Batch of 2 targets.
Target 1
Amino acid sequence: MNYTTHRLSAAGEALRKTLGRPLAFALVVASCATLLAVLAFAAIGLWRLMPLQTPPWAQPEALVYFGGAEGEIDLAAAGLALRQVPLVASADFIGRDAALAELTQRHELAPLALRELRPNPLPDAFLVRFAPGATPEAVEAAVVALGKVKNVGAVQYQAAPFRKLAALTQLGRRLAPLSATFLVAVAAMGVLLASVFWCRIDLEELRILHLLGADAASLRRPYVYAGALCLGLAALLVWGVLNAMNASLEPYVTAVAQQYSLALVARPVPAWAGAAFVLAAAFIGAALASIFVRLAQWRQRNVENRG
Amino acid sequence: METSPTDASAKAQPLVVLERVEKRYGAFRPALVGLDLGIARGEFVVIEGPGGAGKSVLLRLLAGLENPSGGTIQLAGENLARLRPRALAQVRRSMGILPPADALLGARSAVENVALAAWVAGTQEQEGLRRARAALELVGLDVGRYGAAPCMRLASGQRHCVALARALVNRPALLLLDDPGVPLEPAQASRLLQVIDQFAQAGVTVIASRRADAAPAAAAQAWPARARIVRLHDGAIVP
């Protein structure tokens, strides 16, 4: 027997082990596929959200009104002064005419009422957005600082919603790594358990083959191939299911992303990533099986040497 | 036929040499103590002793399944304890081993169990099966009737025959047989011993163990008269 026939023979033995227990094989592949699907689904979701950005509606903002009549204030200088306040990310000018137009449109005022509003009673304003990630306390301090800028009449800032959102975000930040760790741990344990069940080492067979002069590598080979086949097939199944899910859910996910201004990139997962996923899973299956057989061989040697 | 000087020196050199071999398992009484033994090529050696004398331990050491706690075992000039696992496996493929329990794969057929040894030694599948059938015929098992039967369904004597056929299937250079006459009827055991002796006469070195306290049954078995008896007692060779 040469290099190739040794491996072909081991592959045949692996298939025999697999086809000999079709129900167990299907069960193990399905369990591993479910666990891997959860992980893959989370990973793909995260990948499509990358780079993570805070949506505009989740950024704290304040309206800064300037006092004084039209033309009295140097708006360019005012905007510059606002931007120099710590934590201010942007300050966009909203002119009193634009504000009136929006007010008119919003309340559908009659032309008569519009005439009543002459001259325009609204102040010039700036919409100030704060840097994402700032704490509510820091934002509130910045709001106080904005109020002290020259010619600022009033600052309108709703502290409560941002405090609530910040509390939720903080909780999410704490939970995310914990949940990810838990998810990975559950998946790893599940795959490990399924592999232990699948790679049930026949110690008697190992002992007999060892006695007949089979070397350690050829003893491991059928188990290694069976392990690779099991997790590789599970990964392939996951890939198929994810692609099917992706195709059916895509319009709905896009709609939700648009509504919540989420920067969700609708990019298909490339084929090489799928191939790499299947290969990585097969490699892990082979490695796990190899470890189990090595452990069994080590246990066997210990038992034999103890007599 | 002329014998070349190389053949002569190879024959003169013992195949197996044991020097002060000891085997201990933890703090228990040593299983083997200070064994010195040389076995020539083509020799038929019977290791005889009561239960617990260390016969099976000695055979396991000779098979390289365990290392001695002290001393050296040389096989064809190679110290077994110093061989790498891969080389040791290769050495074991040149042996025919009959373990104390028949050590067969119960779910596999008799032919497959025997062919397994041939396959492990690198024989092609069909050739392995052919050799397995021939080896089973040699030890007197009806291949047509029992060859395809799973070993778990065979009687203990038949299983023993399968295990012996497996030891013979690769035409080994060294046969290590643990109690080859047990659990067979004396007549059947004698017939198998004759087969083993044929191998020895063909130049195969045979090292077999035999229980001394099973004297009546053993006496009824026809062990070859030319066999050298080595007596073991409490792990030591006794005169």
Target 2
Amino acid sequence: MRIVKVLTVLAVLLAVATFATAAGQILLNAAGATFPYPIYSKWFDLYHTSHSNVQINYQSIGSGGGIRQLLDKTVDFGASDGPMNDEQLKQASVPILHFPTVLGAAVPSYNVPGVQVDLNFTPEALSGIFLGKVTKWNDPAITSANPGVKLPGDDIVVVHRSDGSGTTYIWTDYLSKISPEWQQKAGKATSVKWPVDGLGGKGNEGVSALIQQTPGSLGYVELIYAIQNHMPYGKVKNSSGIFVKADLASVSTAAAAAAKYIPDDFRVSITNPEGKAAYPIASFTWLLIPSKFSDPAKRDVVKDFLKWALTDGQQYVEGLSYAKLPKEVVAKELKAIAQIQ
Amino acid sequence: MATTPKAATPTEFIATPRSFLRRWTGADEIAHLITLIAAAMLLLIAALLVYQLWIHSAESRARFGWSFFVTKTWDPVAGDFGALPFIYGTLVTSAVALLIAVPLGVGAAIFLAELAPPKLSSSLTFVSDLLAAVPSVIYGLLGVFLLVPLMRTNIQPALKKSLGFLPLFKGPAYGVGFLTAGIVLAIMIVPFVLSVSREVLLAVPRDQREAALALGATKWESTWKVVVPAGRIGIFGSVFLALARALGETMAVTMVIGNNPKIAASLFTPGYSIAAVLANEFSEATGNLYLSALIELGLVLFLLTFVLNGLARLLILITTARGSGVLPT
Amino acid sequence: MSVRLAWRKSLNVFMLSLTGLCALLTVSALFFILGYLIWNGGKDLSWSFFTRLPAPVGEVGGGMANAILGSLKLLLLAALFGVPIGLLGGVYLAEFGGRTVPFLVRYTADLMNGVPSIVMGIFAYALLVMPMHHFSTLAGGIALGIMVIPTVLRNTESFLRDVPRARREGSFALGANKWRMVATVVLPAASRGILTGVLLALARVAGETAPLLFTAFGNRYWSPGWMQPTSSLPVIIYTYATGPYEDWHRQAWAAGLVLLGLVLITNILVRAFLTRGTAYERS
């Protein structure tokens, strides 16, 4: 019966250790997109520092996961880079509100031995690669846009997401706009059936890791992941025919165009926009917030956090290479916060 | 090792004392009931497990029927799901693992059972048991950072050079893929093959090998032609047991298989296994049909391991003829 | 010596050395794994690793204190849930069982033992997380607890059966009834063996990742109480190892070393000390 004694002592110890921190705490659980994970985890940490009784636990399991767990009501709110579609919204027991938080870009990142420069990618090259038609690095579709760069004859190893992903949504949304064939074969969603053989990585984290580890690879990741991990990423030709590298300015330009006619529910795609300086594969990323909370304490925290993130929180955004929200959008969102009850 | 369970079941000698301890039998009955409830809990949990997998996969079963098992598509956008690539990946990686692990494990078991002095044998078995206790995610960790780069830069190019004419070793060397996953699995299941085979071999009666030796056979001949065939069925049992392990192994495989639902002859191809797709997609499958298809995959995996385990235990039981033996877990 | 005999003799030596090589290879795998983990993870084991929370993504530093406590809590729940059922079930099989039910229970236990851990995760998600609408330590602990039951149950049964008949009969002769006999004579006699089984089963589930992915989930902070998601060592190793950050990789190695160390030490201590002098060793 020694076991019982040992277990009892352990139980008491653990209970003390765990409940000691519990008094007056408000805990929120959230899950979803990996795309904004760096900024969200920074925000939640800062918010916790200034509001020590509030902890927001964000798990980056992918946008598909954020939507699914929100619908299963296992988390308090979700996050996604692809807006929920009408069918998903219908499944929710209370209406779900979309709140754009920051803007980001999906970039084609690669690991080509011996190539250090920024490669240029035309829409045709990107769709060709992901359709499995362009299979070698020295394919004319790539070399013609990169005069002077010596590209090897190696196979292109396509890296994509293995989980339900908003970054995939943005990427496939873009491919669907520029390639009718893609639109027909794969379409846009948080997970698709890939026409090309490739490696699947879990989360932006997993894809970044695979690209770094696999010579000859090309995949799509959120800009911050490429920057933080010192991975090269290419310029993409936009609708005005100019090769643009993803950065704060080019992503903001893409957003500015969309800001004027953003719909009331904030669900809008800004891929392949007009404008000479606009980066073509950019997107808002959204927090998915239920319009009704049963616990008023949680509701107040969510509202307060949103207000903070949309105003003061925006100053941390550019440090992590996301673009700030356009002013018009922020103003509109601050009004929409009132809808949360 | 205990040779036979105690022949008398306790019920036999309960009868006599009960007659003069009648006033206490109420307590006995309560104890009986409590322990019975505990045992029944296990049955209940098992039944619940099957029930949950069954009802939650209903939508997928109704929609796809048997074609689920022969369809290659896994298309979450169109809502078209087939299990074939995952079943294929699971079987191929397990087959690779068995090809490596069985000779290694049986060989080592022969050494431990027949050759090594008892002290050495028991300490080596101890180490092998410890190996079996290493968590799966640790194998994954080593797989990702050690084996995958090694496969990509050394092993796969070497195989391509020497055996590249075979369809098994074609295509680009990604590092991850069926072969890598199979190798990691092999290391993981060797201890199971080893410890069960060793026990089976030890259970072969002494006089059989002595007879063979007396007839002039070498040590190896007596082992290979007499002892091993005598323990054949039990060794098969250990193989099934190891196979069941390999089929259900999740984390290490997820980390090195490549996560790509693809059927291809080449072992270099990044693939997918049932357990890996569940780990990756289960918590994020949007849409009921998608989720239901994943749970049906879980059901398939469950049934596969269920059947194999049952078979394995039956076979081991036959050879060691030992009902209460605690098999390695 | 005829050519044939020489051939047979050299084949003998060759094949026997080959089996020795197989044994050497298998056994050296453990030392290799351990050595590699120490090499890669040893230098990153610092005080802050054990006492601090994870740093925000992409920033260097932080620790895994919450994951370590989370793992302990999960194990405690697993023990509280799984051990009593396994223990009592084992007593039933060894002492009270009739004919059909024990066969069924024994067979189910063996088969449950082989159920892939990922399937357990799905089961626990469907059974606990979905209805409760909450990822929680509780769900994770029960998922692990279910995995503990079959091992403890079968192990308890086998050790109880090995308690010599003479001791039971002695107790009966003194006028004890059955349950007293079991509680005061048989269980204590088998206690070492049973404890061994319990600890080994717990050491095994301590390293399980798959059942926790959809139940205990993850947490960047401390997880108060039992109804909140919690971080755990195996899950954090998985997340960090598959992530892109150097610092994550370093911490994954360190965490891997801690986990492996705990599992191996438990195994070694239990096998070396507790099994001595029990029925298991004697036979």
